[in-house]
Amino acid sequence: MSYKNPLLLGTKLSLLWLFAILNILFRDVHELTMSSTIEEILTGHLNGVAMSEGLLVVGAIIVELLLLGFLFSSFARPSIARRLNLFLAPIAILGTLASRPSDPDDFIFAAIEIVTFCVIWWLAWGWETKPLEETAIEAS
């Protein structure tokens, strides 16, 4: 797949990352509306997993990687953005699978997130990057 304007593809990828991040955020906020989730959090556990500082740091790193996918898709050179998207999308899929959906609505959010990450990977795979000089010449 070839795109005449690699900058336009970077914008599309950024929007897909934003869509995925918002799905993750909304799924988390949605869970907080259930009293059982709040009670479980107050015990220091979530989905049967003990919360620890180390686990929270890992979660923070994963969230930051997703946000980097969002930013770098638009602001990094296309060759760097392409590689970053190819690297981050599978990691995001693994993170979604590792979060183990616990109820039917979680499965809906997880499915949408996984499909979105697959589309990000597919678009990045087909992203033909050229040096910035060639892109500028074609645009004029």
Would you mind describing this structure in some detail?
Helix 1 packs antiparallel against helix 5 (104-125) and helix 4 (78-98) packs antiparallel against helix 5. The chain starts with 5 loop residues before the first helix and ends with a helix. The mean pLDDT is 85. A hairpin with a 2-residue loop joins strand 1 and strand 2 (49-50). It has helices at 6-31, 35-42, 53-75, 78-98, 104-125, 132-139; strands at residues 45-46, 49-50. A two-stranded antiparallel ribbon has the order 1-2. The longest helix is centred in the N-terminal third of the chain and has 26 residues, at 6-31. By secondary structure, the protein is mainly alpha-helical. The protein has one domain (6-139).
Question: Secondary-structure element sequence?
Answer: HHEEHHHH
Percent of residues in helices: over 70%
Query: In the residues, how many domains can be counted?
Result: 1
Global geometry: elongated
Total number of β-strand segments? Answer: 2
Number of helices: 6
Query: How are the strands of the biggest sheet laid out side by side?
Result: 1-2
Q: What multimeric state do the chains show?
A: single chain
**What is the percentage of strand-forming residues?**
under 5%
Write down the Rg.
18 Å
Sheet having the most strands: 2 strands, antiparallel
Q: Roughly what is the average pLDDT, rounded to an integer?
A: 85
Distance between the termini: 22 Å
User: Unreliable runs, pLDDT <50, ≥5 residues?
Assistant: none
Structural class: mainly alpha
Protein name: DoxX-like protein
Keywords: Membrane, Transmembrane, Transmembrane helix
Transmembrane segments: 7-26, 54-72, 84-101, 107-125
Pfam families: DUF6326 (PF19851)
